[in-house]
Design brief:
132 residues, alpha+beta, Aminopeptidase, 6-stranded mixed β-sheet, 35% strand
């Protein structure tokens, strides 16, 4: 998150906003004590009922164990129950591991957006038509 200049304080404010607006926030826990993953989806109907995957994080020690996939599947199902027909997301263009993850999950690369979030970064947009 340092790459995006997200501080602990800012992260707290963003999560508080997600709760206030009733976004989808799901957490993966290790033995119900320690969080190991988090997904944040904004269920919107603004663009043909497309939800926006705002954030998916998995602790480095827990990556490649299916946690990200399980969170993504659960968030897609929840967004679909709330009326979403599709999901879109942005991922930093040079994050090849994440891009491969989303492609395996059925997301299609639809374009790149240089400087959208930070002037020095290019974001790649991904889209998945059906979440059912």
């Amino acid at each position: 998150m340092r790459r995006y200049a997200v501080t602990a304080s800012l992260a707290g404010r963003l999560i508080a906003e997600a709760f206030r607006t009733h976004d989808i926030l799901l957490m993966a826990m290790h033995r119900r004590r320690a969080p190991v993953g988090l997904i944040w989806v904004i269920p919107t109907r603004a663009i043909m009922r497309t939800a926006y995957l705002r954030l998916l994080l998995v602790d480095k020690r827990w990556q490649s164990q299916g946690i990200g996939g399980a969170l993504l599947t659960a968030a897609e199902a929840r967004a679909a129950r709330e009326g979403g027909r599709s999901m879109m997301l942005l991922v930093t263009h040079d994050n090849v591991r994440a891009r491969t993850f989303y492609e395996r999950a059925g997301y299609r690369h639809v374009g790149d957006l240089p400087g959208l979030v930070r002037p020095e970064l290019t974001e790649s947009m991904y889209f998945k038509r059906s979440m059912s």
